[in-house]
Amino acid sequence: MNGLPRADLPGFQSDQPERLILASGSPRRAQLLTAAGYEFTIQPASDGAECGICSRETAPEMVARLAYRKAADVIARVEDGLVLAADTVASCVGQILGKPSDRDHAEEMLRLLSGRDHDVYTGVCLWSRRHECFVADVVRTRLRMSVLTEEQLTEHLDSLRWDGKAGAFGYQDGNDWLEVVGDDSESNVVGLPMERLAELLENFEQNAEKIETPTIDSIESTDSSCS
């Protein structure tokens, strides 16, 4: 695959008056939204909104929690807007694979994934500051990685294309050793399930849960049990 998924990306067709705020500094998520015709501003969540894996937490639980925390972090800092937050990880043979810390960590992840099917999960949270309500969901994509040769592994590691990407790879980078299984979402692997996002936005008022908008102090004091 070459570049980000662009064909048939669903856009948001609604009279939603609130401005959309992307709570992420990911250029890939911004490019997906732009390709689908969304108008938005960017206000990344603080580093403190991510605290790692909690005890006995599954991959879907983790991305749901982190997407919620990122949205809560930004919603507490704005006076108006519809905040969109997301978090993506890979999961293989029971191991959660986030962003690698260095080259050795990236190589460890890729050797684990080589020749295996695995899952990519993205948690998505939309939070309305004006109406003090939110909606959240998790989308899974099944991904297949071919057996990597030593040459392919070395080339990928040397390229630094693994840096900042869950599982140490980017589906959008055109790697011919990656393929989506079945009809699962390609954009979900990149970091934002555009099909599900359009549905969440379209049905936001019907599905959103009312909640008191948190303060920054209340966000920073939660999840103290995470490791």
Automatic annotation (TrEMBL):
The active site is at residue 87. It catalyses: dTTP + H2O = dTMP + diphosphate + H(+); UTP + H2O = UMP + diphosphate + H(+). It is found in: Cytoplasm. InterPro entries: ITPase-like_fam (IPR029001), Maf-like (IPR003697). Coiled coil: none annotated. The keyword Cytoplasm applies. Nucleoside triphosphate pyrophosphatase that hydrolyzes dTTP and UTP. May have a dual role in cell division arrest and in preventing the incorporation of modified nucleotides into cellular nucleic acids. Belongs to the Maf family. YhdE subfamily. This is dTTP/UTP pyrophosphatase. It comes from Rhodopirellula halodulae.
